[in-house]
Amino acid sequence: MRTHESLEIPPRFGCHLNLIQQKPAPSTVLLGLLIPGTGHWMTGRGGAGAVWFVVITVVSLLGWTLVGPSFYVTFGTTYPFGGRNIGIPLAVPELANFIETFLVYNMLARPVPEAPVPSGAAIGYFLTAAGGILNMISVADAHFRSRVGAQADGRKSPAIAALLAWLVPGAGHYYLGRRGKAALGAGALLITFAIGVFLTHGTSPQRDRDLYFWSGEVLLGLPAALANVLNFGRRIRQDLPLAEMGLLFTTVSGLLNVLFILDAYSSAERDAIAPAAEPAAAANPTTPTAVA
């Protein structure tokens, strides 16, 4: 007669399930994407929500101020509604901070055709994009906190790991103590981006011309912002046969950094849950059983 071991959940995995007891409401994510900080407010963390709201709003408004009317002319459209034209912003990643972007677009924007791009626009573009990216990180943090409650307090934050990974490639993994992966990621991404800038002769990235290519490049964080500031205003005055390939390199470097951001976030999430699971695993030992 053949015997088979019964299937059972390993102790450590079972403890992880016990830690994640709360089911986050979909409204936590939806409201957080609409208005900064509301995801934390929905989970009873009003103080954290207020901090996220203030930081995201200040960063975004500063960016919009530096860019000026050219932002609203370039990155939006209008639709007739109720006898008036409603402005619809189309900027990415600013749309991740939708309500603030929508209100500013419709309440503060001035219809200035052919509005010039001011000298501070390079920094302004980065700040407005940062507002959207920060709000996505805020929503992820609210979702995580709603699942684990206070059991992950005092441990390295997945939100901080994601923020660092965006700002400086590899910094999120360095923060988590994964030095090898940090060096590998930073080296690969920065070399890829540098090749792209070289192939475009420093004319990339520039948002007022490259539009959605820039939306991929900005995901590389501060390196992309620095290149944009240093090369802002440069125009193509000669034939650049490899310019499109250069755009591809710079854009792909930012998109690939998303993978490192997600990996840093998920690694920090696992690290935050695992220490609390160990005592429970030791207190609830189980042994495999066999059945005929």
Structural class: mainly alpha
General shape: flat
Mean pLDDT: 80
Helix share bin: 55-70%
Largest sheet entry: 2 strands, antiparallel
Strands, total number = 4
Strand order of the largest sheet: 1-4
Could you tell me how far the N terminus lies from the C terminus, measured between alpha carbons in angstroms? 7 Å
Radius of gyration over C-alpha positions, nearest whole angstrom: 23 Å
Along the chain, the helix and strand elements come as EHHHHHEEHHHHHHHHHE
Description:
The protein folds into two domains: 25-147, no CATH class; 163-272, no CATH class. Helix content is 64%, strand content 5%. It has 292 residues and is mainly α. A two-stranded antiparallel sheet has the order 1-4. Strands 2-3 form a two-stranded antiparallel sheet. Helix 1 (11-19) crosses helix 14 (243-283) and helix 7 (121-148) packs antiparallel against helix 8 (158-167). The radius of gyration is 23 Å and the shape is flat. The longest helix is centred in the last third of the chain and has 41 residues, at 243-283. The chain is built from 14 helices and four strands.
